[in-house]
Amino acid sequence: MLDANAQLPLYKQLKEVIKTKINTGEYTENKRIPTEPEFIKNYGVSRITVRKAIEELVAEGYLVKKQGKGTFISGHKVLRKIEYVTGFSDSGKSSQLKTTSSLLKEEILTANQELAEKLEIPVGAKVLYTQRKRLGNGTPLLLENNYFDYARFAFLQEEDLTGSLYEILRKHDILPINPGETTLEIVTADDFMAKTMAVAIGTPFFYMQTVVKDQNMRPIHFGKQFYLGDAYTFSI
């Protein structure tokens, strides 16, 4: 039981108990933690106390909420260097994750001013848009939105995009080795993102906009990517 007379608030005591169980391996990676009623029964605390402890642990990256499933211990963090071009498959391998992908959308768009500037094509030119959900050990980690100059990359429509995009490009002698301008900010999941990525509304994501260029400094794609916040560490 927790000590209601201690100077440390009950929610912080419970938080430390949960952290200890995580650090000692009693609560194991990617496993669901006890439910709110179980914590209330086991530690004699209120629902508010339990929720506050869990919310802080989610914010600190120890736990992750999955919509309709409960709260789980966070898995491995994927390290990604911003200044290098690193594909999801390669990042996953270096972090010892089994990576899989599903193609959610594949559409032909018309380039607006933003896409024309990023891809260095005329306004109104055809653009190939793909959206993929990338998973590590079965957990959705990245919602990937890529825009390609259709004139150069129409062949991707004939390729299997559930694997490594960069491996496909290399087979066509296109080397994704030069990062262009990249921005990174924090956003939170809306209803669409929550349903697509199986997380709670409000879950933090890293939102990256980037242009990747080939060996001749020609744009390959303009990306708008959403990385699950508690699964990634970015280094500069």
Q: Could you explain how this protein is built, in words?
A:
This protein has 236 residues and is an alpha+beta fold. It has two domains: 10-73, Arc Repressor Mutant, subunit A (Orthogonal Bundle), CATH 1.10.10.10; 78-234, Chorismate lyase-like (Chorismate lyase, 3-Layer(aba) Sandwich). Helices cover 28% and strands 34% of the residues. It is built from eight helices and ten strands. The protein has helices spanning 10-23, 36-43, 47-59, 88-94, 113-119, 150-153, 165-171, 191-197, and strands at residues 63-66, 70-73, 78-81, 99-110, 126-136, 139-149, 178-188, 204-213, 219-228, 232-235. A hairpin with a 3-residue loop joins strand 1 and strand 2 (70-73). Helix 1 crosses helix 3. The longest helix is centred in the first third of the chain and has 14 residues, at 10-23. The radius of gyration is 21 Å and the shape is elongated.
